[in-house]
Design goal:
The protein is mainly α. The chain is built from seven helices and two strands, in the order αααααββαα. The chain is elongated and about 50 Å long.
Length: 166
């Protein structure tokens, strides 16, 4: 059976590497085309959906939260105040550094550990494994995919292989 560390940290690292790369392409595109950084970072699919900056923040929070909830490791507070491509890259780097600092044994062996997620409207009860497979990974990829889609919608020259990683 695949261990929780192997299901999470490598997937997060790869996703953040791809996210970092598409953000670099987005930043270059904005500069080359005279698009204000704030304009591109504020892109939304629809008015009531979070902008590009929040997609990166939620991917970060999802990865960190998985380690905290399953492994009981202390979190690293991040303020959600990123307003530039540079700040988003720093957020990604800080998240990956946090993940790299989580000992493998903090989450491995916790497949059956109860995990509760409380949202403003609902409470979800999981085991460590069902939390990772049914909530964490889908949520992480939702936000990475949405960031990709927002940049693509604005004309940034990225494609499927940029999302998947080269």
């Amino acid at each position: 059976m695949t261990k929780l560390h192997d299901l999470t940290v490598p997937a997060f690292r790869r996703g953040f590497a791809s996210l970092s790369a598409i953000l670099r392409t987005g930043e270059a595109y904005a500069q080359e085309n005279g698009i204000a950084e704030a304009d591109l970072l504020g892109t939304r699919l629809i008015a009531d959906m979070a902008p590009l900056t929040a997609q990166v923040q939620r991917a970060s929070d999802t990865a960190k939260g998985a380690m905290v909830r399953i492994g009981g490791v202390p979190t690293v507070a991040m303020v959600d105040d990123e307003t530039s491509f540079t700040a988003l890259q720093q957020r990604i780097a800080a998240t990956v550094a946090f993940l790299d600092g989580v000992p493998r044994d903090a989450i491995d062996g916790k497949e059956d550990t109860p995990v509760t997620v409380i949202t403003p409207s609902q409470t979800f009860d999981f085991t460590g494994r069902s939390y990772v497979l049914g909530f964490v990974l889908p949520n992480f990829y939702f936000h990475v995919t949405t960031a990709y889609a927002l940049l693509r919608m604005r004309g940034v020259p990225i494609g499927k292989m940029d999302y998947l990683g080269r």
